[in-house]
Amino acid sequence: MEVRRTVPVKLDVDSDDAALLRETVDEFLWAANYVVDHAWQGNYKTTSKAQLQEETYDEVRDQTRLHANLVQNARNKAADAVQGVVARWKQGEYAGEPHFSTPTVVYDKRCAAFHDESVSLATVDGRIEAQYVLPDGDRDTPHSRYLDNDDYEVTSAELHNKDGEWFLHLRTKAEMESDTSEQATTGHSTVLGVDLGVNQLAVASTGTFWSGHEFDHWRREYENRRADLQQCGSRHAHENIQAVGRKETGRFKMMLHRIANGIIEEATENGCTVIAFEELTGIRDRLSGASWGHKWAFERLYEYVEYKAELHGINVEQVDPENTSRRCSTCGFTHPDNRESESFECLKCGYENHADYNAAKNIGLRYLRRNQTGDGGGAPVGVRLNRGTLNANGEYEPPAGESGQSGSPRESPITRTEGSG
Ligand SMILES: [Zn+2]
């Protein structure tokens, strides 16, 4: 299955190139209208692209300076419009002859080259190069989601002119894995709970940990570099501090992308259709030792997971974080003394495990309860543990093909440490 997104980008075009683009637009629209007029002749409207190509191509090439592929794209635009009118007639609706006047040109890879930060476009007189005017890369925008994302590929684009400014509407596509379709049709969903923290940046209910060690190491490292530069105090030092900041942001983003990919992998390997996080609002106040840097990192991580998950047909949700670290995921007993720093030991039933792992399971369970008591339609939901699944009644199911005792999951967490680099 494919996911398609259109991303508009503004182009940086000088006046000479703008003049060429205007002429290209004029000739492209002329060509498309010429083909429509031709298709419209006679009682039967011609809708076949091959036939229209044969009957109009030479004349359009003679009358315009358009690149051969732009002639074909104009013909396709015309044929699509005529087909649309014929389809409406078949529905008994009224539709007149199409006419194109909006300034647009359709580009594909044969008459344009789409680079990361610029594009090369065929015009009536050779090609022009135009830089994209991109927003700040730190913000979450369609550009950072789809253009800076290797999973998405630019397949074609439409050039637009609006109030004298040039824009390219880039069409991107990505392949989406369809191995979740079976669960989607049976209505069964499995949730991966994810706990966020300082010592462990993320812990999944499957027992996989992503350590915060590398994050802390580099934060200290960059802080020291900034402090050293601050002592110099010169303008040059100030510029260097900004450079350190950019480098820091870039390194952290790469790290967060790796963790996000790891979480997605964890979810797909375990057949999860939902990834549940705790609510991010107020997270800095809830976690002791969390800085603004952590808050920033959790927000980025959530965004990365959210858009990467979309490609796999996985939903990402946030649940109420109250007591997820104090509640026993086995018996439900909630008490602040159940937890002491990284260890969780239930005062009631004696369940012992890593505190963040216990919290990750609670996050998954909270999603599951919310969706079974609410308007979720009563579809079965399970929380994926490191071995097997836990359902809303607290019943444990071992993984398929293995024998396991109900109610006694073997679940000491496996630690997976993120490689540095
Ligand atoms: Zn307990």
Automatic annotation (TrEMBL):
<feature type="domain" description="Probable transposase IS891/IS1136/IS1341">
    <location>
        <begin position="180"/>
        <end position="281"/>
    </location>
</feature>
<keyword id="KW-0233">DNA recombination</keyword>
<feature type="domain" description="Cas12f1-like TNB">
    <location>
        <begin position="298"/>
        <end position="363"/>
    </location>
</feature>
<dbReference type="Pfam" id="PF07282">
    <property type="entry name" value="Cas12f1-like_TNB"/>
</dbReference>
<keyword id="KW-0238">DNA-binding</keyword>
<keyword id="KW-0815">Transposition</keyword>
<dbReference type="GO" id="GO:0032196">
    <property type="term" value="P:transposition"/>
</dbReference>
<comment type="similarity">
    <text>In the N-terminal section; belongs to the transposase 2 family.</text>
</comment>
<dbReference type="Pfam" id="PF01385">
    <property type="entry name" value="OrfB_IS605"/>
</dbReference>
<dbReference type="GO" id="GO:0006310">
    <property type="term" value="P:DNA recombination"/>
</dbReference>
<feature type="region of interest" description="Disordered">
    <location>
        <begin position="373"/>
        <end position="421"/>
    </location>
</feature>
<dbReference type="GO" id="GO:0003677">
    <property type="term" value="F:DNA binding"/>
</dbReference>
<dbReference type="InterPro" id="IPR010095">
    <property type="entry name" value="Cas12f1-like_TNB"/>
</dbReference>
<dbReference type="InterPro" id="IPR001959">
    <property type="entry name" value="Transposase"/>
</dbReference>
<dbReference type="InterPro" id="IPR051399">
    <property type="entry name" value="RNA-guided_DNA_endo/Transpos"/>
</dbReference>
<feature type="compositionally biased region" description="Polar residues">
    <location>
        <begin position="403"/>
        <end position="421"/>
    </location>
</feature>
<comment type="similarity">
    <text>In the C-terminal section; belongs to the transposase 35 family.</text>
</comment>
<protein>
    <submittedName>
        <fullName>Transposase, IS605 OrfB family, central region</fullName>
    </submittedName>
</protein>
